[in-house]
Design brief:
By secondary structure, the chain is of the alpha+beta class. The protein is 23% helix and 33% strand.
Length: 334
C-alpha cells in the first residue's frame, strides 16, 4: 500500500515538473479576424479561429507566422519568446496607427495561476509534426451516344451484266450488304472511365497536389530576407523588429518623462522582440544617463540579431569606461 502511494506521488511530482517546463501561448484578434498559426513552419490549428490557445510549448522561443483567413489581410511574422518556463503569455493581434497588422504583448502569468479556459476558446496542443498525407482518387465517367440510319453492312457490290444489245436485252444487278433493319435507326453507347489519383500534402506554408497525368505546381521556396545588409555572422535571435514597429517603440519611449520608465518599457519590448545592433544604438540614444545606457546595452545583447556588429552600440556611450564594462560583460557570456 505504501509503495503504491509512493509511486502515485512520484508520478504526480514528475507530471507537475513536466508541466512547469512547458508554456502556454494565447493569440487573439482584437477585431475578430480569423487566422491560423504556424510555429516553426508547422501549422497548428487546421481551422481559422479568432482566439487560439497553444499548450505544451517546451522551447524558450518560436518563429511564429499568423495567416489570416481573409487573404487580402496577408500574414504577420513575429518571434514568440518565453523568458520564464511554466508561463502563459497572451498576445493581441491588431492594427497599428499605420493600418499594419502587428502583435502586442498583453500579459504573462504562471500556468498554475492562469484563469480557466473558456469553453468557446480553441485549445491546440503544440505539434512539431506536419499533418498526415491524404490520398484522393477521383473517377470520371464519360458516355457517348452514336445514332445511325439503320443500314447494316459496310460494302455495297453492284454487278451489272448487259446482253443482247440488238433490239432487246436484259440487265441484272446484284447488291450485297445493303440490308435495312426493321427499326430504321440504330443507336450505340460508348462509356469511357477516367481515374485520377492525387496526393495532397499539407505543410506549414501551403498545399502541394501531385498526381498521374496532372500538372504539378510547387510553391517556390521563400526568398531569403536580408535583415542587415552584408551581415553573415552569428545570429542572436531570428527576426528583428520591423521598421514600423520599431518606430512605434521609440515614440512610446520618447513620450515618457522619467528615465526609469523609459528603461522599463525598452526592456519590456525586448521580452517578445528582436533588434539589430543599429536599433539598440538608437534606443540607447533616448536615455539621458550613462548608467541607463549601459544597463540597457547589457540587457539587449541577448535579444540582438547581428551580435557580431554589437561593437557599434559603443558609439552611444560618452565614456570609455562604459565601453570597457560592456566588453567585459559580453566576454563573460561566451
Amino acid at each position: 500500500m505504501k509503495k503504491a502511494l509512493y509511486l502515485t506521488g512520484l508520478a504526480f511530482f514528475f507530471t507537475v515538473a513536466l508541466m512547469a517546463q512547458a508554456n502556454n501561448a494565447i493569440l487573439f484578434a482584437e477585431n475578430g479576424e480569423k487566422f491560423q498559426v504556424i510555429l516553426n513552419g508547422i501549422l497548428q490549428n487546421q481551422t481559422p479561429e479568432t482566439n487560439v490557445k497553444m499548450t505544451e510549448l517546451v522551447a524558450d522561443h518560436y518563429k511564429c507566422r499568423i495567416v489570416f483567413a481573409d487573404t487580402k489581410l496577408g500574414f504577420v511574422d513575429f518571434n514568440m519568446f518565453f523568458n520564464e518556463m511554466g508561463s502563459e503569455i497572451t498576445w493581441n493581434i491588431k492594427q497599428n496607427n499605420k493600418g499594419q497588422y502587428v502583435t502586442r504583448y498583453v500579459s504573462a502569468v504562471p500556468i498554475a495561476q492562469a484563469p480557466q479556459t473558456p469553453a468557446s476558446q480553441t485549445v491546440v496542443v503544440y505539434t512539431a509534426v506536419a499533418p498526415p498525407v491524404t490520398q484522393t482518387t477521383t473517377t470520371t465517367v464519360h458516355s457517348q451516344t452514336t445514332t445511325s440510319d439503320g443500314m447494316s453492312g459496310e460494302n455495297v457490290n453492284i454487278n451489272m451484266g448487259v446482253s443482247g444489245m440488238d433490239g432487246g436485252g436484259n440487265i441484272s444487278i446484284n447488291a450485297s450488304g445493303f440490308g435495312m433493319d426493321n427499326g430504321g435507326m440504330a443507336t450505340s453507347t460508348t462509356t469511357t472511365t477516367t481515374t485520377h489519383s492525387s496526393t495532397t500534402t499539407t505543410t506549414g506554408t501551403g498545399t502541394v497536389v501531385t498526381g498521374s497525368g496532372m500538372a504539378v505546381t510547387n510553391t517556390p521556396p521563400p526568398t531569403q530576407v536580408v535583415y542587415v545588409q552584408g551581415y553573415n555572422g552569428k545570429v542572436g535571435c531570428p527576426i528583428p523588429m520591423s521598421p514600423a514597429d520599431f518606430g512605434d517603440m521609440k515614440e512610446t519611449i520618447r513620450s515618457k518623462d522619467f528615465e526609469d520608465t523609459k528603461l522599463t518599457i525598452a526592456k519590456q519590448v525586448l521580452q517578445n522582440n528582436c533588434l539589430t545592433s543599429q536599433q539598440v544604438k538608437e534606443v540607447m540614444s533616448l536615455f539621458d544617463f550613462e548608467n541607463t545606457k549601459l544597463d540597457y546595452a547589457k540587457y539587449a545583447y541577448d535579444h540582438t540579431y547581428d551580435i557580431g556588429n554589437y561593437y557599434k552600440v559603443n558609439d552611444a556611450f560618452e565614456f570609455e569606461s562604459s565601453t570597457s564594462d560592456l566588453s567585459k560583460y559580453i566576454s563573460s557570456k561566451r
